[in-house]
Design goal:
The complex is a heterodimer of chains A (about 280) and B (about 290). Chain A is mainly α. Chain A has helices at about 5-30, 35-50, 60-80, 85-105, 125-140, 145-155, 155-160, 165-190, 200-215, 220-235, 245-260, 265-284; strands at about 115, 195. Classes of the chains: A mainly alpha (about 280), B mainly alpha (about 290).
Amino acid sequence: MFSSYELGLLSQIGINILLGLSVYVILSAGQLSLGNAGFMALGAYTASVLTVNFKLPLTLALVAAGLVSSGLGFIAGFPALRLTGIYLSMVTLGFGQMIAAFFLVFAYTGAERGFFGMLPVKAGTIWAWTIGLGILTYLLERSKAWLGVRAVEDDEFAAQVTGLNTTVVKLSVFAYGAALAGVAGGLYAHFTVYIEPHMFTFSQSVMVVLFVVFGGSETIFGPVLGAIVLTLLPEALRFITDWRLGIYGALLIVLLMFRPQGILTRAFLRRVASLRLAKRKEMS
Amino acid sequence: MFLQQMVNGVMLGSIYTTIALAYTLVMGILGVLNIAVAETFTFGAFVGLALLVVRVPVPVAILGAMAAGAVLSVIIERFGYRPLKDAPAVMPLLSTIGFALVYQTVIENVWGSDPRQFPSELFSAAYHIGTVQVTGIQLWIVTSTIIVVLALSYFLKRTQMGRGLRAVAENPLAAAVLGIDSKLINVITFAISGALAGASGLLVGLNYSAITPLMGEEVGLRGVAVMVIGGVTNIWGSLVAGPLLGIAQVMAAAYLGASYQDIVVYGLLIIVLLVRPEGLLGKPNQVRRRT
């Protein structure tokens, strides 16, 4: 049905959507994480060690990867209680770099030589996780608890005054975002079947942030769209590969100047929905 | 051996101080984390190298690198910072990431991605003090760092413009009420920051005797670490944190192995953040206020 090249692209899209969501949920509470590649690394190494050295099934290994990353995300969230805005972004940046630096010297996982021996994962398995966690995130977003998350984004102080426990909200989004990144990392490791620390540095974190900023950070469909477009775009831009990142950068600058909320916004989706409703009325 | 490593650490650290100052100026005065400082730094290194290759004296090459860095930085001010000045602080940060990607790509396409060597005759001079060796280039590095820090300190403390900068850092609104031209201040801040980044790029290149288009990211992120460790709200924090980190990194490389450099640098960062999030010389209350 699909060529292996197409399956590879599909797998990458699935993984990138999960990564985009991981930044998106943290950003939903107004916190920009520049260290999600670190959580991804932790998930990738955890899952790989469990399937290769301990012969665990992939599903269990991925659950473990999500839990371990989530634990670290929870810890990384603590500075978030004292810091806000850019300061927090710098903390996440430091955390992310620290995790990559740790795997660079951790002999058990091969240090700088990297870790291998994973069995390749099917695109279908990746998409099962992507869709499952996507639906979970979507449902979370429609839940009452999510109002708290958006309240923290809008005005943390006001949210606190109304009696909302902002500490719990912030730590939860960090833990959940890190879990998503961890699962994505685990899938990524079984997609590339070889991982090494330099795959998980700052540039990777930045790439993931781009998914969200391009697609839009107001609705869950934003990062999904961003991940799809930015994964496929390099294929379309093959003839100017050398300039690819520069083009992303220029697009980002222009986007921020003219449409800082990203391509998809809540207002836009509402408009589309009302148009569709009007059409349905016409037909009946 | 140990003394020699100390000297090398201080050399590297003095460069970190300069690059951290480039971050801190924009961060402390305008509240923007300029990610593209790293690429401005690389650009300075390549321009400086191009000048040195045609046998321009070292001080002139440093000035050239500073000018190149200032130009790139002012472009960021115009198109990345000015349109987003009143948006949440995350927005200009994202825009500087865009500039980082653009500059990175331009540097790679103009100069190629292979490492480039500096002319070898630059490194012939060396002086021996006991068992410690100091090269002529290292003297240039330390001298220029000292000059840069003194000049910056004079500018900020004694000149009208410098006082304006500090007033904006203290309270932008009050500064505007007092008739300080904030537009000009923003441009000047970015220009100085870019000049510092450009100079430190060339100095790092001279320290390692070779440069690559990707060196900015590694050194730049360490510069962010130096800034945070020193204290974001106090631009002089990097005077302490720079040499501290330089020595720690050189010692880690010498006694543990090259791959341990990063874990020592970022380990220090995490410890400082957990124990004293305002940094070594920072004031705690300001970290919360400016978001």
